[in-house]
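Morning F.,

Quick status update on the modeling queue. The single chain you submitted on Monday has been processed. Sequence for confirmation:
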Amino acid sequence: MALTPDDVVTKQFQHVRFKEGFDPDEVDDFLDEIVVEWRKTIAENEELKAKLAAFESGEAAPAAPVAEAPQAEEPVVSEVPAPAAAPAAESDVAPATQSAGIIELAQRLHDEHVAEGKAQRDQLISEAQAQAASIVADAEKQGREERARLEKERTVLEGRITELRNFERDYRSQLRSYIEGQLRDLDTAGSSSGSTPVSAIGL
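Structure tokens below.
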């Protein structure tokens, strides 16, 4: 199906997800200019086609006066269609060339827009991957530092627990020795008092 100016006006492009490429307003304004020129070209083409059809059907104005001699009529009639046909053919080619140029320009703008969007997408993906790798590396580093800190604290606590156990063991041993010493002293004092005469203690 041939492309028309209305197709350009109603064409909807998808927006780039992360970042726009060209300024949408500038693209719309330029496409509006393209549509205006395109419509002018189509109107001129239709006008030229109508003139050519009218000329070929004999509705155009006579090219030579009737009062001239018969010898002059034949060259005039035979030469008139040739110059008229050449501009008509050129006028048919020119709008087609202009239309092809406009379509090529629009396609190039579209391709550049898509290429820029893909480049920006790839750049954003690359930046996101680099940022994710940096975050993971920082998290792993913090995890290692935290494990080292906890390991150090555990070592300190285990040393403190060992010290407290040694203190408890020494304290129990000393307390036991003290109590046993006191019991021996009581036994010795009881034995001594049992062998003393009653008269010695004033009874």
